[in-house]
Amino acid sequence: MSEQLTHNQTQFNHQNFPITIISDHLYFQENIGSLFRIAEAYGVEKIILLGKNIPFVDRKINKTSRSTHRIVPFELVEDTQIVCELIQQNQAQVLALEITDDSILLTELQVTNQPIYLLIGSEVNGIQQSLLDLANQKVHIEMYGKNSSMNVIQATAIMLFQLTNLIKK
């Protein structure tokens, strides 16, 4: 019979990846907390929370982050132009997780040895055009139902799974 392991009993290979997630106006506190949890699970280097008045309430975020918001480095940035300049000044791949008229399937994604900025959008509007225009690759997840989107954090988890597996190769 199998026995469920506790956190202290797992023997995962801890690894950090040169990935910075830029969340474009993510506002639901449950999603913000979940973003930290999934980012920590996949060894993400940093999170940039872009937007004005982001509801970063420690007590509420902690419910879904399981305290990972205290581990994963992050920055709150209100001005989109500052993030655009950051992207333009650095030698990094810019990947946008968004369905567009020129997006590719996640399974077709190719990465280089450069650090990665992963753009994810808001729960309602996705990624704003000024950021989308900076992306080297726009990537979407193939789905088989009638709905054309999924929760941003679920999609980010799927993207990070594929991305970290490509980087490890």
TrEMBL record:
Domain of life: Bacteria
Keywords from the UniProt entry: Methyltransferase, Transferase
Entry annotated with the keyword Membrane: no
tRNA/rRNA methyltransferase SpoU type domain residues: 19-161
Record-level GO BP terms: methylation
Entry annotated with the keyword Transferase: yes
Pfam family, one: SpoU_methylase
Molecular-function annotations in GO: methyltransferase activity
InterPro entries, alphabetized: Alpha/beta_knot_MTases, rRNA_Methyltransferase, SpoU_MeTrfase, tRNA_m1G_MTases_N
Protein name as it appears in the record: TrmH family RNA methyltransferase
Lineage, top ranks: Bacteria, Pseudomonadati, Bacteroidota, Flavobacteriia, Flavobacteriales
